[in-house]
């Protein structure tokens, strides 16, 4: 029976230049592979060692990239290894099968959102009226499923984020601060639901997962085994649960360690 590996991408397997955390002397820094280019500029990286491990993993398990990115943002990424048959985008709002969104899955998700939480327009109006132009750089709608802000992090008042989270909670939404982005996401829009759907379709008997942000918590809890790196929201909140391992590595080297753990667990299952 196949092993399913559902992994977050940004700051879990791939890293921007700002998130690499290369604390070693320059001469000992790992060789890096660029896996994303945007507007003709290199944007995301993994170590060459991690690239080899991911290629091995693609042959050993059903690897499912699992991201809050929109489909367009995800499709900029060029991961090493076999092309994944399945990918989860927009925090579970789109299940890609051979690169195309499954219309039945998307319809089920949007129906549930309409039934269980406040409409996106209400959230967008609140964000637009309450965010301060002093620190707000962009407000974006992600696939008509959720919203996010791009901010100047050093100018962002912590109290504003807390107030937003409390306001959103009462409307069936959750808030996550990741780097320079603040996400407002409907609670029923989850990576875990999409992962369960892929497990059903593939007949996977073991599910493995990794992630660094609060939007990954449901994914880690739903998997048989999960890992989180030593950075990110989950590390900052000391997120812990049975079956979830907190790794000490931070930055791009955490991506290597996570892939080694995936391979070890996949091998043990065979």
Concise summary:
The chain is built from nine helices and 14 strands.
Give your account of this protein's structure:
There is one protein chain. This protein has 270 residues and is α/β, with parallel strands linked by helices. The chain has helices spanning 48-60, 71-74, 103-116, 120-130, 158-169, 191-202, 217-222, 233-236, 252-269; strands at residues 3-7, 32-38, 41-47, 62-65, 86-89, 94-97, 100-101, 136-142, 146-151, 173-178, 181-186, 206-210, 225-228, 244-246. Strands 4-1-12-13-14 form a five-stranded parallel beta sheet, with helices on both faces. A four-stranded antiparallel beta sheet has the order 8-9-11-10. Helix 1 runs parallel beside helix 9. The model has no long low-confidence stretch (mean pLDDT 96).
Name its key features.
270 residues; single chain; five-stranded parallel beta sheet; four-stranded antiparallel beta sheet; alpha/beta
* End-to-end Cα distance: 8 Å
What is the overall pLDDT average? Answer: 96
Helix content: 25-40%
Detail the poorly predicted runs. Answer: none
Q: How big is the Rg?
A: 18 Å
How many alpha or pi helices? Answer: 9
Order of helices and strands: EEEHEHEEEHHEEHEEHEHEHEH
Helical/strand content category: alpha/beta
Q: How are the strands ordered across the major sheet?
A: 4-1-12-13-14
How would you sum up the major sheet? 5 strands, parallel
> What is the count of β-strands?
14
Strand content: 25-35%
Shape: globular
């Amino acid at each position: 029976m196949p092993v399913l590996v559902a992994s977050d991408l940004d700051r879990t397997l791939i890293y921007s230049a700002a998130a690499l955390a290369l604390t070693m002397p320059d001469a000992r820094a790992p060789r890096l592979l660029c896996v994303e280019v945007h507007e003709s500029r290199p944007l995301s990286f993994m170590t060459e060692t991690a690239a080899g491990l991911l290629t091995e993993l693609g042959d050993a398990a059903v690897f499912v990239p699992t991201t809050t990115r929109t489909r367009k943002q995800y499709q900029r990424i060029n991961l090493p290894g076999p092309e994944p048959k399945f990918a989860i985008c927009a925090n579970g709002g789109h299940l890609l099968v051979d690169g195309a969104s499954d219309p039945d899955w998307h319809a089920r998700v949007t129906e549930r959102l309409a039934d269980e939480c406040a409409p996106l327009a209400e959230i967008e109006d609140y964000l637009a009226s309450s965010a301060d132009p002093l620190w707000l750089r962009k407000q974006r709608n992600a696939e008509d499923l959720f919203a996010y802000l791009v901010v100047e992090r050093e100018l962002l008042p912590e109290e504003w984020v807390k107030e937003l989270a409390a306001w959103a909670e009462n409307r069936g939404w959750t808030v996550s601060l990741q780097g320079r982005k603040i996400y407002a996401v409907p609670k029923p829009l989850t990576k875990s639901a999409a992962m369960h759907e892929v497990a059903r379709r593939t007949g996977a008997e073991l599910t493995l997962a990794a992630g660094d942000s609060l939007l990954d918590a449901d994914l880690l809890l739903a998997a048989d085994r999960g890992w989180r790196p030593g950075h990110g929201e989950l590390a900052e909140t000391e997120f812990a649960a049975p079956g979830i391992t907190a790794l000490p590595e931070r930055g791009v080297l955490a991506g290597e360690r996570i892939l080694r753990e995936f391979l070890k667990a996949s091998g043990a299952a065979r």
